Amino acid sequence: MSSQDRPVSSFKDKIKSSWPYILTVAIIGFVSLWVRILPSDRVLLPGGIVKFTTNDAWYHMRTLFVLLENYPHRMFFNPMTNYPNGSYIHFGPLFDQMMAVTSLILGMGNPSSQLINTIGAYFPAVLGALTVIPVYYIGKYLGGHKTGILAAILIAFAPGQFLSRSMIGFTDHHVAESLFSTLFMMFFMLALISAKEKNLRFEDVFNKKFTVLKEPLLYSILAGVMYSAYQLCWPGGSLFLLIVLVYAIFQYILDNFRNESSDYLGFTGIVTCLVSTILILPFVHPDMGFSLYYYSWFHVITSLGTMAGFVALSFIEREFKRKKMKSYYYPLLILGVGILGLICIKILSPSLYSLIIHAPNTVFRIQQGGPSTIDEASSIFYDYGAFTMSKVYSNFTPTGFFASLLGMFILAANLFRKSKPQEVLLLVWSFLIFLAIYGQNRFAYYYSINVSVLSAYLGGLLLEKVKWSELDQKFKSNVKSPADIPRALKFVKVEQVFAVLLIVIFLIYPVYGSAMPYTKMVYGQPSQPWDEACTWLRSNTPDPGMDYNAIYEAPTNGEMFQYPDTAYGVMSWWDFGHYIETIGHRIPNANPFQAGIGGRSKSINETNRPGATTFLTAPSEEEASAVLEAIDPRSDKAGARYIMSDAKMATSMFQSITKWTLDIEGYYQAYWIDKQYISLPTTRYFNTMEARLHILDGNGLKQYRMVHETEAYQTDELLYKYAYNFILGGNIPQVYTGYVKVFEYVKGAKITGTVSSNETVKINTTILTNQGRTFDYSQSTTADSQGRYEFTVPYSTDGPIAGQTQFDTAPSGSYVLSYGDTTKEVKVSEEAVLKGEQIKV
């Protein structure tokens, strides 16, 4: 034990001894907060406007406003998304409750919308800065104050996902996950240290030796509270129970080989799991059965199961010692008991067994197919199937990442010596989170904690090598006032200065240099076109007849939510579902929870389920309309009334859309142009509904009409239009058009007439958009043997009517019908378009 870690005689002396470190950590915390709120002028805009970062942040603010509207009751089922099914909310309640309580306190019971939005924007930055505290204490109990201070500095500036998800405006629960999971590990570690130092035995429990039990019990209870807080921010918090259970198995085995008691570990684990079980129980939804994603009996069973594991491991260890059995049998018996337990679970509850067996795949396995396109769910080491270190370096810096690997190697080597429980815990914790980022890079915000602690652990070892503790003690003995500092500098050795320089250059400066660019980024979503399009949608489309801030009961298991007849869906790609709901106050078919996507899961031989991917990749208008009709099982209702598309959906994002169908071939082909190969879209691409709507403006479609478009931006749209003209011999203008376009799915007016048999008949009009742009709309058909023809057209020439879409994109004149040398003008009313009425020419 270094001198700085020796116990002091009293609480007063302890505070006196620790205040320099407390002050240092406080300063680091405030610097950490300052870094995170630097972009406030790009998030908090004039007029009380707040631009939240990411779509999930908008959804958290939606659930927060519903909570405050109905306080203390929160929304569990939301029918305003994933039409026509609605979605259960898998977000934990704690993150929203913390913001709600803060809003109610600062707003004196009646907070304004601006205050709520401001609190929501600042909240992740505050939680990110608070994470400095548990990281300091974890570092301190691994290598003393110097290690703790260094760990606090490193996490304060840790770049990548930990920093980005704790910046102002990133109002999502991820930073709360990081804070509470780290607090959980800190208190669990303190409980282990305290119980082991006091040589705690189960007999102390039975004999009520509170002098021995008091401190370990307090830390264990706090560990259970923090684990519950962590899990109540994210249902997937069972990940850290797995970490603790794996650690416990290793620690029991090590203690058994060393002939040491593990009662300290059993006591800590049992109390922690018991507390977490009690606290999570009130939030369980019995109708969820065994679900990993919603608070269900699975979360109770895992806590109780982990507690039972600690009981079993302790009992087995005691029996081993009582019977003086050989230590190498102990791991074999643990393995046998584990297998037997799984067999029993499989017999008693096959569904629970399946969930337990497959749960690790959701974290540690690399995603395939559609899920592989979710940026945060892709492996940190792979990008489009190719190995890469770029995401690793951007999240941790090269020196930080490799320092973490070296730190784990040293901790693993310590296993063969007298390793401490906290060192084994850090090793198992770090290794499992490392496996987690291999499966999904989103867990980089967890691994940043491990990188900071492991890097500080290495730095602490280096300082120990140059006898930093001796220097620290000399400074304490000789520096009584600031005037004494110059004289005390004579105690500093060259190797100590060199060690500090190495730490600054290789550990601190890289994270600082990587962190500061985050303060200069453009924050705030959605983009201006999506904001404008959703605002237009809210003001110019019929009210779906839903109480936006009401709390709705979930439908009975197996039944559909009963929407009013006025409700309808809005089809778009899942990325934009929350914007459609929170800004547009309309009901998206698909959302960023990957609900409503449709497509296939494992094999191309599966039935292609109706949803966003199936609609957007449909190879004809008829098949696309069939998808919309199939989404809503009611025969008289379509799954969507409006379709929203943006330029990225039609260009750079399109390949990701196709992956959800598992049918990705043939949409693009390489062409030799200007002495290089260029990948261009093919006929198959231009036949898709997405291309017909966005690239071709819906020209020729019978039941889809553009009703609004936003301002144009420079995108890959021109390249796609060039390809259409080059490959298919088209003649569309190669100009930028609306970045976001809104289309309406209508029955279409039926224009009929008679001409000579087998004669070609054409109909066309010029569409004028709200941006002042014009494009041609035309169809062509051949009369039958009786001379009869029919066109279904989606645009009305008379303008909008009350209670329906107030479109601002429409024909600039009548339809022109032509055959032979004859031309006729045809007017079409809005009622005829909406009701599918016939117009005879």
TrEMBL record:
Keyword annotations from UniProtKB, A to Z: Glycosyltransferase, Magnesium, Manganese, Membrane, Metal-binding, Transferase, Transmembrane, Transmembrane helix
Compartmental location: Cell membrane
Pathway(s) of this molecule: Protein modification; protein glycosylation
Signal peptide interval: none
One Pfam family named in its UniProt record: STT3
Record-level Gene Ontology MF annotations: metal ion binding; oligosaccharyl transferase activity
Membrane topology: Multi-pass membrane protein
Protein name: dolichyl-phosphooligosaccharide-protein glycotransferase
Species: Methanosarcina barkeri MS
